Amino acid sequence: MGHTSTSISLATGLAKARDLKGGKENIIALIGDGSMSGGEALEGLNTAGEMDSNLIIILNDNDQAIAEIHGGMYRGFRELRETKGQSARNIFKAMGLDYRFVGDGNDAEALIAAFREVKDIDHPVVIHIVTRKGKGYKFAEENKEDWHWRMPFDIETGKVKQEMADPYAEQTAATFLRMAKEDEKFVAISAATPLSMGLNQERRRELGKHYVDVCIAEEQAVAMASGLARNGAHPVFGDYATFFQRTYDQLAQDLCVNNNPATFLVFWASMYGMNDVTHLGFYDIPMMSNIPNLVYLAPTSPEEYQAMLDWAVPQEKYPVAIRVPHMTVGSSNRPVRKNYDELNKYEVVRQGSRAAILGLGNFYNLAEEAADKLKERGIEATVINPLFITGQDKELLESLKSNHELVATLEDGILDGGFGEKIARFYGADKMKVLNFGLPKNFYDRYDYEVLAKENHLTAEQIAEDVLNTLGK
């Protein structure tokens, strides 16, 4: 399974296939209480409620999502815990499911007894198990949110062996706190991942009414942001890129068809971000940049990110997404554009000839490095910061034809349907040669960052060599 809230739906399919084949095996779905806030979990329950065969759903209820839980259903879960499963407010029974309660899910013997009771059951049943998140490890018990996941740490002290702070998360949080004071209509939205935006518990309290957590329900976050924007508010929803994959329909239908000016911050959209196959964050460019009306921006530094954030949130013309730079992208001394109302206007940073390199977002610095390598070989390349992922600067691209033979695009993501293909399409009928640098359309799992980069010619040396070879020099 991939992201949260999926297990019940997958289990209904497994159970139905078993029944069609005449099988007898137990089908078991495990889901946490935080995951119940995702719409797919409720869709799965609804389907399970009318199935007439074995399906065992284990609800692990530790009163916690990634951060704290939010939503009306959790009042019902609390009542079930407090009444040892006897409360009349029972969403599972309301869906037509049998229901069992285990008050101490950290008691192995109690679990064994509950599982024996439902093994080979002939109808769908939910076993509601109450556990303590982090139980058995003092630091995790005391700080559940910080210990939802952890970098390698010292067991005795709980201290992380190597700190990993995201400066862009801190920058985002500071901007939100300022905006909340300056703009009564400002709203920051999280889908259970507030730390993606640097919003720790103290900062969330400080934001007060200017902060909403919809729990693990990214679709709700996007649609709610669209409604907020339509009614005059200035909403910002931030999340990791991998979770935006769940929001395509809301981005297209609820947001962009209505052209509502909400802002979306896409974090860790990079091959250098999370590297397990269910949390890859580099499919966003093909997905988001091809939705009509959406303006997708790619800042290349914290200064540029700040300018884009300050422009996007109060403006009321466009739905805007910002591909937040990866934490390894540092400051720049280049002048920064403050207004982005004129769409799809790229920025020429270094003027040259013969070869032009367009370095998008995270890969702008790589473009500069490749240009330096080319200069050592006698080619003074033009270096361009596109800024906009969603469109072509046709005037600039046309002008390159006069004294350039090759255009290279660099993007930190999948090439199929990506930014580079937009540029290649522009030059399709011309003699201009185009090289697109990025990743092939594949699933990658637990890969080595540097190995993957070299395999796909994403080093300055390789890019320069490919440009020279294509130019025939």
User: Shape from CA axes?
Assistant: elongated
Helix-strand category: alpha/beta
Helix content: 25-40%
Please count the helical segments.
18
Report strand order across the widest sheet. 6-5-7-8-10-9
Low-confidence stretches: none
* Biggest beta-sheet profile: 6 strands, parallel
How far apart lie the N and C ends?
A: 49 Å
C-alpha Rg, in Å?
A: 25 Å
Percentage of β-strand residues: 15-25%
Overall pLDDT metric = 96
How many individual β-strands?
A: 15
Question: Would you mind describing this structure in some detail?
Answer:
This protein is an alpha/beta fold and 473 residues long. It has helices at 7-21, 39-48, 73-82, 91-94, 108-118, 138-142, 167-182, 201-207, 218-230, 241-244, 248-256, 284-288, 302-312, 364-376, 394-399, 419-426, 449-455, 460-471, and strands spanning 28-32, 55-61, 98-102, 124-130, 186-190, 211-213, 234-240, 263-267, 295-297, 320-323, 347-350, 354-359, 382-385, 404-414, 433-439. It has 18 helices and 15 strands.
Features:
473 residues; alpha/beta; 18% strand
Describe the structure concisely for a colleague:
With 473 residues, the protein is of the alpha/beta class. It is built from 18 helices and 15 strands.
Describe the protein's topology:
Layout: H1 7-21, E1 28-32, H2 39-48, E2 55-61, H3 73-82, H4 91-94, E3 98-102, H5 108-118, E4 124-130, H6 138-142, H7 167-182, E5 186-190, H8 201-207, E6 211-213, H9 218-230, E7 234-240, H10 241-244, H11 248-256, E8 263-267, H12 284-288, E9 295-297, H13 302-312, E10 320-323, E11 347-350, E12 354-359, H14 364-376, E13 382-385, H15 394-399, E14 404-414, H16 419-426, E15 433-439, H17 449-455, H18 460-471
Parallel strand pairs: 1-2, 2-4, 3-4, 5-6, 5-7, 7-8, 8-10, 9-10, 12-13, 12-14, 14-15
Antiparallel strand pairs: 11-13
Helix pairs in contact: 1-2, 7-13, 9-11, 14-18
